[in-house]
Amino acid sequence: MLRCTGFQKRVRAMRCVPCGAEMHLMQVVEDDTMMVRGYEHHIFECSGCREVERRLTFNRARRSPTGRMVQIDSKDGTRVAKDTKSGRVVMHNQNRERLWELCNWIGWRVVN
After folding, report:
1. 47 lies in a domain?
2. Distance between CA atoms of 50 and 104, rounded to whole angstroms?
3. Kind and range of the H or E element at 98?
4. Strand stretches in the chain, DSSP E
5. Residue 62, SS3 per DSSP
6. Angle at 27 between CA 108 and CA 11, to 5 degrees
7. What's the structural domain count of the chain?
8. Range of 97's domain?
9. Of 17, 11, 13, 16, which Cα lies nearest the Cα of 45?
10. Would the pLDDT of 63 be above 80?
11. Among the listed residues 103, 91, 112, the one whose alpha carbon sits nearest the alpha carbon of residue 64
């Protein structure tokens, strides 16, 4: 039986095809030619041979911007996201990082 013990985000380095060295993200450009918002061009440069590669990616955090801005605070031992205009609590979670990820996924901008 498989059990999920929590949310874990894994990041792997992108490697250069010709030389195998690590590629570094140099620039992110939003693509406004697509029908759906959230597509971006990621431009990478190789740390070894300086090869440049461009990838089209989809960023879920930018798919449906609502214009809502939230601030993350603590309340009664949990983390809450408050709307900056109204001051109302719009979401809560025990984990601050998870709350931040959820707010970004929805399209809310988190401010400190």
Report:
1. yes
2. 33
3. helix 96-106
4. 23-30, 39-46, 52-58, 69-75, 78-83, 89-93, 109-111
5. helix
6. 70
7. 2
8. 69-111
9. 16
10. no
11. 103
